[in-house]
Specification:
Strand order of the largest sheet of chain A: 1-4-5-6-7
Largest interface: A-B, 28 and 29 residues
Shape of chain A: globular
Number of strands of chain B: 11
Distance between the termini of chain A: 44 Å
Structural class of chain B: alpha/beta
Structural class of chain A: mainly beta
Radius of gyration of chain A: 13 Å
Number of domains of chain A: 1
CATH architecture of the largest domain in chain B: 3-Layer(aba) Sandwich
CATH class of the largest domain in chain B: Alpha Beta
Strand order of the largest sheet of chain B: 4-3-6-1-2-5
Radius of gyration of chain B: 18 Å
Largest sheet of chain A: 5 strands, antiparallel
Order of helices and strands of chain A: EHEEEEEEE
Helix content of chain B: 10-25%
Shape of chain B: globular
Number of strands of chain A: 8
Helix content of chain A: under 10%
Distance between the termini of chain B: 29 Å
Oligomer: heterodimer
Largest sheet of chain B: 6 strands, antiparallel
Strand content of chain A: 35-45%
């Protein structure tokens, strides 16, 4: 299957992101460091075939995040996200 | 959403299978009793984890099909023959068995009565599951929100929740259901009989000037095609929510 057919979206990593951030993150808004697109984390493109998770911008397909889980640790690369905005707990 | 659903550590819980309900030859609903379940919203999913005797673990996400109902949660699962998890859930699992899960998960692909409408729900195959939770919430409360569901299945036998959808559409609470059967149709079939296309979407979708809210769930290609058609019809991109499920599931 081609890469486009393997594409998932931010909903698929809702559980993983909640492990990392200890809160619901798919409604958070991310800004792409490459093209400036702003959108919900739930709407990003996600590829899970690699040893880790690769998250790409739905507008320009540049990498936003990479998440790798090793033996008892996480490796989180957020280089492609300029800003992540979410509400304060009420 | 409630604070409890937004903030918090996900913990694995041991649920008990109350009932296994066959829906189609390849799909079953699992009614689960989950101790201390914090409640959920329509559209959310949960993660299921299976652990083998040697410690190997496999984890998959499944959409919740039921409207919020205390500690009772129903997931509806399609059996994928080469899958690691679904052949166990649909085929091996019996009432009384235990299952490890965590959730509810997600906040983006979620609909609650306060979110409003009109709603356009577009489902491909088992992508109907989270949308079914939305129609069940809709049918349970007099919200005044109107909804249309466009649901693509391969054949009549593959239509999940067929009888319940007929019943809910007959309640006169503003739900209309449109089926399309892409591979085979029974004699005297009155619904659509082809893959989703521009003409079908134009006939079923609310006009864009009503500012509808669209939820699309299904295989990746189906979801992206449906979303593209809605953008062509003038829907606002921010009011089209999508959930793709891929070939790596199971």
């Amino acid at each position: 299957m081609d890469e486009a057919g393997m594409r998932l979206d931010g909903n698929a990593i809702g559980g993983l992101l909640q492990e990392l951030f200890v809160r619901e993150m798919t409604v958070a808004e991310g800004t792409c460091a490459h093209c400036g697109h702003v959108g919900a984390v739930g709407a990003v493109h996600v590829y899970m075939q690699a040893p880790g998770v690769v998250v790409r911008c739905p507008a320009c397909e540049q990498v936003l995040m990479r998440i790798v889980r090793g033996r008892d640790r996480y490796y989180l690369d957020l280089t492609g996200i300029r800003c992540l905005e979410f509400s304060e707990p009420s | 959403m409630a604070r409890a659903a937004v903030l918090g550590r996900l913990t694995w819980r041991l649920a008990e299978v109350r009932e296994v309900l066959p829906e189609t030859p390849r799909v079953s609903s699992l009614e689960l009793q989950v101790p201390d379940w914090p409640g959920h919203a329509a559209g959310q999913h949960l993660d299921v984890r299976l652990t083998a005797a040697d410690g190997y673990q496999a984890q998959r996400s499944y959409s919740i099909a039921s409207a919020p109902d205390g500690e009772t949660v129903t997931i509806t699962v399609e059996r994928l023959e080469d899958g690691e998890v679904s052949p166990y859930l649909v085929g091996e699992l019996r009432a009384g068995d235990q299952l490890e899960l965590r959730g509810p998960i997600g906040g983006y692909f979620v609909w609650e009565v306060a979110t409003g409408g009109p709603l356009l729900l577009v489902a491909g195959g088992s992508g109907v599951v989270p949308l079914m939770a939305m129609t069940r919430v809709l049918a349970a409360a007099p919200s005044g929100v109107k909804a249309r569901l466009l649901y693509s299945s391969r054949s009549f036998e593959d239509v999940i929740f067929r009888e319940e959808l007929d019943r809910l559409a007959g309640l006169g609470k503003g739900l209309h259901v449109f089926h399309t059967l892409t591979r085979s149709q029974p004699a005297a079939w009155k619904g659509y009989a082809r893959r989703l296309d521009r003409e079908m979407m134009r006939e079923v979708a609310w006009p864009a000037d009503q500012r509808p809210l669209a939820y699309i769930c299904g295989p990746t290609a189906f979801v992206e095609s449906a979303a593209g058609l809605l953008v062509e019809l003038g829907y606002e991109a921010a009011r089209i929510k999508t959930e793709r499920f891929g070939p790596t599931g199971g």
